[in-house]
Amino acid sequence: MSVDLQDNVYIVTGGSRGFGLAIAKSLVEHGAHVGLISRNQSGLDQAVAEIGADHALGVVADVGSRASVSIAFEKIHTHFGRLDGLVNNAGLATPNKVENLVEEEVLLQVQTNFLGTVFCSQLAIPMLKSSENPRIITISSASAWHYDEMSHLSIYASTKAAVERFTRDLRLEVQADGIGVTCIRPGGAWTNFSDGWDTQALEGALAAWKDAGTHMDMGMEVTHVGDAVRYALSQPPGVAIDLLEIRPNALTSKSIF
Asked: Which residues are catalytic?
């Protein structure tokens, strides 16, 4: 049995593009309202225009800063008057071999991918306690468990593994408050996730990745992840999907890269 999301309010971090935007669109299509958080104002403006200002609010914030998140959450909560769920989707990666890792890039990935999940979850909990069906979703990555996703993403994969371990404790801690917690682990999908990556570092990662095998699991669309999140949020009170891994089931030649 699924629960109607009509008029529910959800915060989606990293909501201006990729998985985040697809998640937001899927929720709004089923009657929900969304607060989108991103570091990019122009991206948020475009996302809100696509979704519709009656159903979406975009707020600029750095999820790696607890103070920034606190201000953003208060704006969204005040605007909609409630909060029913949080989708911890914000994440980024910068490919590099371990011996060549750049300190600033390592810290940015840890702050955004892991600490962002921690801070957002922490600040959402008191707001969610008044919801009839409160939920927290954490978005992991197949890179945390599978070796065939992409090479030279050791820090990104490690932060996502940390997100999964954090989610286990979060689930146990908020059960008494009736908050359902789900970790969703997406596989490879066609997105703009690699936009802005250093060309030389990306070429090195692709070369190492191709050497590891000739084929990959690829072909999933961002809408599949959006629908998976909606499915998890629509579970009835007292029921929560613990872990949901969604991966493409199409063997694709790496030669397309």
From this structure: 156
